[in-house]
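Sample intake — LuxR family transcriptional regulator
Collected from: Comamonas aquatica DA1877
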Amino acid sequence: MPHPTLLVADDHPLFRAAVLHVLRERFAQYQTLEAASAMTVSSTLQAHPEVELVLLDLTMPGARGFSTLLHVRGEYPEIPVVIISSNDHPRIIRRAQQFGAAGFIPKSAPAEDIAAAVAAVLDGGSWFPPMAAERSEADAELAARLAQLTPQQFRVLLCIADGLLNKQIAHELGLAENTVKVHVTAILKKLACYSRTQAAVLVKSLENDREA
């Protein structure tokens, strides 16, 4: 039986190495895996069902703000995700929490905080720094709308946001063009969007550079 495993997803090799060092020192009973892009996160989770927690950077290649968090939570709801980010504005921390993260570790945090956060989440709890930002009803509504999408629909939505046509999406995801059309219709209906452009704008709002 495979060992329980922790996945560190960050595109900065030095920071990834530092986090892995903390995990191997404090959680020796766990194996560790690493990923440097949103696509690798997805393929790693597919190949390793023994992963019990993901430490996830928000700004990896292929990620649009909170898109990878939402994708992992949608496809693997049983795996908790802890965001690890250099942007620790209260608004970002609150959005991570509302979009389903089990914890948030600022990249400036000491090793003790990383270990405490991982331990708390592995124990079924959560770990967030103190926050001043209020809960956002708009974010809560956005999270609820996106939660209606299947993992495949979410992938199609991200392709729409990249400006891809149905034919290109079909090629990108290995689907029949007609299947993509069905998905697009369902996505627009679930998100209450009138056009692909409106859906793309909605994805844009997931990006984590907003501080207001």
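Post-analysis note: The beta strands are 5-9, 31-35, 51-56, 81-85, 103-106.
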